[in-house]
Write a structure and sequence with these properties.
Blueprint lengths: L1 E5 L5 E5 L5 H9 L5 E7 L2 E6 L11 H11 L10 E6 L5 E2 L3 H23 L5 H16 L4
Antiparallel strand pairs: 1-2, 1-5, 3-4, 4-5, 5-6
Amino acid sequence: MRALRIAPDTAVRELDLPVPGAQSAIRDHIGATGFVDQGLYHRQALLHIHGEGRVIGLAQNITAWALASAWRGIALYPFHGPVVVTGRAEDGGVAPLDDDLAQQAHAVAQTVRETLEEWCIRPPASNEAALSELLAYVAQDMAPNR
């Protein structure tokens, strides 16, 4: 089953999850031994997030945050650690990720990488300005006909 793993360093890797045992494989890809949060930020996708990522000090995942924020249309709370993105079945369960959503995730990762590189040369005026700037760029990635 097609899925993506988004790392805190902006790397996005294609996954082929086993159909029986997808939840266990997701837990392994996230590095969680306990609870995995499941977030619904797009009606056709699920984000699987380390349940204790912030508490145990995992790095913020700006790419996953930007993707979920763009899908929801608002700036969300930060995500920590690797995130696995899957499709969402009609019954709310895990399903293969469709091509359009995978393409959006890859585009957002590229935008985040480019923006972070630019900020090394031209730092944003504030954290709020940085978040607004990044979300504006990512919104362009989500625009139809892109």
